Amino acid sequence: MNRQKVWLTLKRQAYFCLPESVGHYSHQPEHHVKREEGASNNFNIHYVASGKGYVEIDGTVHELRSGQAVLYFPLQKQHYYSSEDDPWDIRWIHFYGDRLHDYMIERGFHRHSLWTLRQSSNWEQAHLELLDEAQRDQMLHQSRLSTLTYGVLAEFVHQAVPLKKTRMGKAENRILNLLPQMQSQACEPFLLSDWSKQAGVSDYYFCKLFKTLMEMTPMEFITRSRLQMAKQWLLEHPDRNIGQIAEDAGYPSVSYFNRQFRASENKTPTEYRKLY
Question: Does the reported pTM lie above 0.90?
Answer without folding.
Answer: no
